[in-house]
User: Fold these one by one.
Assistant:
Number 1:
Amino acid sequence: MNVEELVRETLRDQADGQPPAPPGLADRVLGAHRRRRNRRLASVAAATAAVVAIAVGVPLLDSATGTDARPSGALDSGGVRAHPDQSPPRDRIGAGDTVLAAYYTAELQQRTDERGVAARTYWLLDPRTGKYKKDARWSFVTVAPGLKTAAVLERNLPAHRIGLLDLATGEVERWIPVRHGVGGLAFSYDGTRLLATTYGENPDLRVKERLHDEDGRTTWMWGVRFGDSSRSGFYDLDVASGAGSWSPVAPDRDLNPRADFAYSRNARSVYAQYIGGRDGLQQFYDLEGHKTVPPADEKFLRSDVPARLSPSGRLAALGLTKEVAGNPGKSYSSVRDPRTGKEITKVRGGHLLAWADDKHLIAWERVTSLEEEYRPRLVLVTIGSDEVVPLSGVREPDKPGALRESWQPVFARR
Amino acid sequence: MDAEAQESFREFVAGRSSALLKTAVLLTGGDRHAAEDLLQNALVKAVGRWHRIDEPEAYVRQILYRQQISRWRLKWRRREVVVAEPPEGGQAPDTAGAAETRMVLRTALSRLTARQRTVLVLRYFEDLPEAEVARILGCSVGTVRSTTHRSLARLRELAPELAAVGPRPQRPSRDFSPVEVRS
């Protein structure tokens, strides 16, 4: 083989390994085109318009850098698929660009008298039937944008291979072997890279804790062993080729046993939750595993609010900020400017889970009064509106000391 | 842009964007983010004159190639390209030797100039004749020929491992043994 043939083969090999184009490309292009045209017309009033645009959560006219330019406003690209009578869900739930791609419950499996594992069981959205189907093979699942592929870990954690599951066929297309055991997975925003958090032991370990009641009786409860994580580092993997490298991360923070890493929006750094003086703290690391400062637009985010940055990157979803008594009570979360941390508005919802588009979010919101036990359902909320659209049925709370935890949603972009 | 044109544009993107993105990734030397930017910008340019385009794919491809080269001309800051290593203990999907050579070559390709890489992509990935490459890039056939020659020479410099690979065979060869050239 000569060099020309080798170049030809290498280029074809590299091209064949590419995942498909990201979803929503046509929308982004049409949006960018529209805005470029508008910018020419509106250049004089640009500064004024920009301020107003932030206030109502509309993406600004940007500098045409090729960033996500999806138009905001009408939530019509995916519509709303709601099943307010289903908890846990049976039929596809979604809004705009976001779909409930899976959900899981966790059940304690006792291993010894004092140790057990909160083992997850997943229900995955079957794209052909639009129904959630139990798939008990996996202990961890994350779904890539596009809803075609999921990354999965087998039953025993930490796992020594990562599966790339074809959601249409239910078959693992490819296994990626790893030397360091993996306990958690997360795709990059564009779905081209996969972050695998490595642990020395099962991150879902539970220990039996002795509780002393006031009257001196002793009771036991299964709980998380706080501050004792076996997390060792992460793999940053190229999904197409499975190639990547492992970076160790020194355990110098208080961590929950499961403290999975996730990519920053641009995937040039990763972050994970740590435990400190307030909730939702996050520590960033570069891709070599060294501590680093957060990206400018992610430093005010909270690790415990999964929605994070809006699709355009111009709004940040933050935590619960206000509750209004009533039956049911109303919760409001904060939406902020990601660069300054200043609140732009409040939006309905007690826990912001995912952006449906630049004006709508999917959230947990209570159906009970503030005095009653918290029982939430998935809802669609709109910036600038008090309206709440139920998406799922009401999730029943975990029973105290129960060995089974209620369903948790896993979202993915279409 | 009317609804019909938008629909036709959406259809085109749905059907061809993955193939176009493959080319864009090669043009950017494996930088997927830069490739998505490149493709999106090319599509934005195309959508503005969608009514007047007869062959959308050829048109978008031409924008991709030219845009990539003009980026280089403008000395846009080149993104750092991270070339991933296989995970420890991982099994290479291919036979070790061939996969390793491709990995080395991929790294070397990412270090070429945008113009050099574009010419190689057009010649060896798109399999276009020199005259067609010259037409697309708006240069002479001689320039295409000399750029191809210099790009391959540069690849050999960047990847000394390729020294083991023989020069262009003078006669059909069925095996990988060095080609004997009689003087």
Number 2:
Amino acid sequence: MLEHKSQEILIKSRRNIFTNIAGGNPSLFSGTGLDFSELREYNIGDDIRSINWKVTASQQTPYVNVFNEERELNILCVFVLNSTIYFGTKRFKQEVMSEILSLISYSTLKNNDRLSTMIFSNKEEFYHPPTRSRGSLNITIPASLSLDPRDKKCDYKAMVEQIRKRSKKRSLIFIIGDFYGEDIDLSALARNEVYPIIVRDHFEQKPSLYTEIGLLDTYNNKVSNVNITPSLVLKYEKVLQSRDAKLHEHFISYGMRAVKIYTDEEPFVKLSALFRRQ
Amino acid sequence: MAEWSFEYPIAFVVILLFLLLERFAPARVNSIVFPQAELLKSLSKASSNWLWLLRLLIFMLLAVALSSPIKQNDMVLESDKGYEISLILDASGSMEQADKFAIVKDIVLDFIDKREHDKLALTLFADFAYVAVPLTFDKRSIKMLLERVDVGVAGVQRTALYEALFMSSKLFKGSHSKHKIAILLTDGIDNTSKVPLSVAIDSAKKHGITLYVIGVGSRGDYDARVLRRIAKETGGEFYEANSVKKLEQIYAEIDSLEKSDIEIKKYMQIDYFYQYPLALAILMLVIYVWLRRRNYAV
């Protein structure tokens, strides 16, 4: 399928991670907010930004939050295999998803965090247990590119179950997929920090190809002739938008910050923007 | 009278063919892989159903147009091609004897049926003569009228034979027909003398009418000499009928003598109506194309 892309993606990601993120902030998602360990009294020289104001106010002496010096982040990347990722006008959605996976993986491994990778359709297609080895990338990225998504249909409920099983400890979870579906419920993962990464193509959201055309659904291999008209596209966009709005609301309500990446965009730019905001 | 029918009902096979092709040979279009094909398909269902219905309707109308709906009318002949026959009947009191008038009526009705391509007129006479029905193709009304008339409609005393002849001749005024015939049936002698015999004959000759004269009853009842003269001068025949059978034979003979050859040039009036469904189909086709095209970028 797309195996030949794996080297290209790996090199590109490495270059991005190593050249664009220079200095003392080498990771996409390094920094504060995650691995809180204890409170202690303020000493001269402490970063005043880490003062815990609530506790300071109640104790009447300054306290600071202390984070794990050697934090060991557990990061789980979930690659959602669904028939709909077999599509793309500029680049294949699957390819872009692999690139995202590789960017996150590189970043994680460079930071010496523990990375596990899961590819899931209606069952677990592939799992790489937690590792710090960069060599694992040569397994996970080709795996994500070589699996044929055409006859797969993602079962989100089973996926959530499987993630819960795999991540006993609190983790950072990246779910990379196109999130088409009406019953996506990630609420069971709320105790982790979840980042849904939605990969879409502009054309699939606005198929402005006004003609009669056969549309091949790769899942059941059925061609349906559809006469695409502007009014139909408008209706279709509306349905998609309302579904996406519902999905977005769901993510917001569980404190999950989603990002939408289109196939004609640079995943690195979008991801950096997402993590800088932390 | 008018009958609706289709000239080529086989053309309705077109509808069946259309349905078969729609089912088994869908339009071949280019295909692309599309993730949300099902959703897009389900959304387009309503409008594509309308288009399909419109398409079906167009084909149905075209099939109807192709099968050529027609309205068949009775034969209508151009007036100068067929015969024009004036029937002149004696309705005087004497015709009542031996049920003569009823018998004559039956035979004449039969005769009218036989002359289906000709124009007919009916003149009755007794005390005076009157034209019951002028020359017409409308056999039905002549028959209806003849069935209802009886002896005495024009009086019972006298026999206005010459006047009837004269008036009947005048019916042909302005006629273009080549074959003008009058069949005069009487059982009496003219005794009104409103119109002299010579005038009556002259008017018949002037219009080119061939007169067949039939005397009914026994020899003395009618003036055979006068009747023969009338027939002779107009180029017709004089018959004497003293029995029902004889009378029937006479009418049959006249019928065969003046057999119209119109039947060969049978003229059927057919009104075609295919243009209406065709026009409607074309209109709908334009609408269909417009519906399909209006959305596309040129």
